[in-house]
Specification:
Length: 330
């Protein structure tokens, strides 16, 4: 494992801002040699989150999917960088033993958003990074693209509970492009889009005018902008970095057509799961994992199947965009 060469990498990515690491920070973060080498020679790298492994899917599917997603990223010519905190050390790029350890620990690993990072590190704990925490680490070392399944958002009744995922504020403050299948209808999609606008986040749908709703390509909301090719993604990300806007980009990729057929059935399971969560008073960071697991039970595994298909599709598009971006910046 190489230590992160933070200063150089960040300069390469974002010439307008010099990131000067405080004493010790380079000793706190470990990058795999593969990721570190790719970054220092301007190669394509795709960051991947780990909450989707620990809390998003059951073992052993979670491990199989994590490995398959890394293989897809490699197949398209980019280097995968799965992010997680193990024994208090943030790793960027996991080896196969670390990946397996994380997958087996599952929900015993702490779900780690930005707010949790310092405590997990200080207590030498194990943390699976959510979208917000993965963006933090990707940005620190200069990885401009990050692939996941779905991001968090404004929860239904969020106007009363104030349960708004820190993924949205992170997108407002961190210049990383997140490739996802949009936002699940367990959330309030129109309010999520409003909040992303407030945060100054560029939201672009891929090959569609509609903002996708994870299990289905249709949310009823129009996407603020549209892009159609990996090169479009690359130009968007490049412009965002060159202008030093400091905010992130959400690239929303609809679930592939042949996997979206089960969408309606999954939608009714979502309604039931939301009702149950309310009755059992499941709230806060426990809510998303509860809903995901319950919807999977209610659909007899169909939602997990669709989830896996869309993550793989996102990985392919994210990797193609990373390769196009590396070419553009060469
Ligand atoms: N949405 C999904 N699958 C997931 C998550 C969200 O469809 O696994 C995870 C991601 O890690 C995301 C986090 O960043 O849940 C958001 O959690 P919360 O709503 O507590 O902010
Ligand atoms: Mn929350």
């Amino acid at each position: 494992m190489a230590l992160a060469r933070l200063t150089n990498l960040n300069n390469h990515l974002n010439p307008a801002k010099t990131f000067v690491p405080k004493d010790g920070i380079t000793g706190l973060i470990r990058m795999s040699n593969e990721v570190s080498e790719a970054l220092s020679c301007g190669g394509a790298v795709v960051a991947l989150e780990s909450t989707i492994i620990s809390h998003g899917m059951p073992y052993p599917e979670n491990l199989e999917v994590a490995k398959a997603v890394e293989a897809i990223v490699r197949h398209h010519g980019a280097v995968p960088a799965t992010v997680a905190i193990l024994d208090g050390i943030p790793f960027i790029g996991l080896d196969s033993q670390q990946l397996e350890r994380l997958a087996k620990l599952g929900p015993k690993v702490r779900k780690t958003a930005r707010r949790d990072i310092a405590h997990v590190v200080a207590t030498r704990g194990n943390g699976a990074t959510t979208v917000s925490a993965t963006m933090v680490f990707a940005s620190m070392v200069g990885i401009p693209i990050f692939v996941t399944g779905g991001i968090g958002g404004v929860h239904r009744h969020g106007e009363n509970t104030m349960d708004v995922s820190s993924d949205l504020t992170e997108l407002g403050r961190t210049p990383v492009a997140v490739v996802s299948a949009g936002v699940k209808s367990i959330l309030d999609i129109p309010r999520t889009l409003e909040y992303l606008e407030t945060q100054g986040v560029c939201v672009a749908a891929y090959k569609t005018d509609e903002f996708p709703a994870f299990f289905t390509p249709i949310s009823g909301c129009k996407a603020p902008c549209r892009i159609d090719t990996p090169e479009d993604c690359a130009r968007l990300i490049d412009g965002n970095l060159k202008l030093n806007l400091q905010s992130g980009i959400l690239i929303a990729v609809p679930i592939p057509q042949k996997h979206s057929a089960s969408g309606n059935m999954i939608e009714s399971a979502i309604q039931q799961a939301i009702q149950e969560a309310r009755e059992r008073r499941v709230t806060g960071s426990a809510e998303t994992p509860f809903l995901l697991a319950r919807v999977n039970e209610l659909t007899g595994g169909a939602s997990l199947f669709a989830n896996i298909a869309l993550v793989k599709n996102n990985a392919a598009i994210g990797a193609q965009a990373a390769v196009a971006l590396a070419k553009l910046r060469r």
